Each structure stands twice: as structure tokens, then as C-alpha cells.
Amino acid sequence: MILQNTGMKFDVITAIPMFILWIAISIVALILINKGKLNKKYSLIIYAFVIVLGGVILGGIPNAVLPIQTILSTIGVIRPIITILPMIIILIILLLTVLLFGRIFCGFACPVGALQEIVSKINFKSSVKKQKNVKYKIDISLKTATIIRWILFAVVVVLTIFWSFSVLQIINPFTGFKIFTNPLVPLFLIPGITLLIVTVASIFIYRPWCRLACPFGALSSIVGRFSRIKYIRTEDCNECGLCEKICPTHQAEQNSKKEECYYCSRCVDVCPQNSIKLGK
Fold this sequence. Notes:
Elements: H1 12-34, H2 40-57, H3 65-76, H4 85-101, H5 104-109, H6 111-120, H7 128-132, H8 142-163, H9 167-171, H10 173-176, H11 189-201, H12 208-213, H13 215-223, E1 230-233, H14 242-246, H15 266-270, E2 276-279
Antiparallel strand pairs: 1-2
């Protein structure tokens, strides 16, 4: 039986910096997006800040996988619900932010997401012309990504609840950040390898962990369909189609629900009419 024993249990010392970082980064990103000032420079600064502080220094927080991991593990051994109440509350709050503002947390406050986003810029450009010259990238459709994600999610649920095998605890890339501060702890070796694989894969596949394997990403993809605020096209749009060509998640279509929009702003950068804004 493999349960919570990674040093990532809920405690006030972990929770306080987690919430501060999560809320502060999300607010800053939303303000910059709303004012149309989230350029490449500011985006890179935010991503780097989250990777260094939330990832390397704080050991992979905010950790969106931890609440799901803890809840599933507790269900598997039939523990009282009160023991996982803090994790349930955290998960609900995270999903509420998705409902209100879309995938802003995944886009900017998540250290694994920020790492993938920076690395993705090697092969996923903000220019249609430059993108055409990229040879080595794998374009995964929304349908294919969704199928893979839910198959993996089902496997995780079955293994954790019915076999008491917490696969998320073993491979969680968030825990992999702890290898920077605890390199001699064997427990962090496999998560560290997972983080390395995700990082390398991000060169060729846009956000592979977020779109294919993250359990929080799976839940967010459902809630995100009903988010109140997201990127929309204004009346200035002339239907040139450049945003649709450049979007790495195929979410720039006019009628898209934007459940897989990570606010990477490639569509904003490529729009000649400046017609993509944050709105309801």
C-alpha cells in the first residue's frame, strides 16, 4: 500500500506561501491581460518567478495534484472525510477560480505549467511565419488529448481507490522539484525523472502534462467550459484566421469554450486587428 508519505501533506507552513503565491500571481496576470500589457517580457518574468520560487525554492507549490492525490488515497482506505477536509476545500477553491477566470492558475501560478510554457517557446512560436519553419513538433488535437487524459485519469482512480496504489504520489512532477533542495532523498527521484520527461517533451508537445496527464487539468477542462471570463473576439475581428493557426491547443475558434486556453497570448500577439480581449 502506497499512501501519502512524500512530505507534501497539508500544513499551515505549506498552505500560507501556496495561497499567497497562487493568488498574487493570478491577480497580476489577470490585470496585465485585462490591460493588454501581458507582453513576452512580462510573461517570461512571471513564468521564471513561479519556477524559481514556487518550484525550486518552495518545492513545487502550488501543487494542484496534491488535493486529488490525497482525496483518492483516503477514499481507498475509507478514512473519515474530516481528515481530507482541507484538501477538499483547496480543490473546490481552485476549481472555482477556473469557473470564474478560466485556466489562469494553470497558465501562470502553477510551477509545472510555467516550466512547460517557457520550454514550449522553442517550437511553438507567436508568429505564423516562424511557426511554419518549425520542423520538430507534435500537434495533438483537442479530441485526442481529451481521450488520453481521461483514460489516464480513470487508470489513476482505479489504481488508487481499488488497489491502494497511489500512482500520483509516485510520479507527481510537482514533488520532482524537491530534488533541487533534497537531491539525496530517493523518494524524490522518480518524480524528478517525471519532471525531466515533461520538460523535454514540452519542446515537441505543447504542455504535455497539463493536456494529457494532469488530473487537475482533467477536472479543469470540464469546469473551464463554463468559465465567466476568457479571451473573446471583439467586433473588430476580420476573420483572418491567424489566431486559429497559431493556437497550440486549437482553442482560438470563434465558438470554442476555451476550456484548454492557458492564456499563452499567442493569439493576441498574432492578431493584426488587436481584436482579442479578456471578456465575458
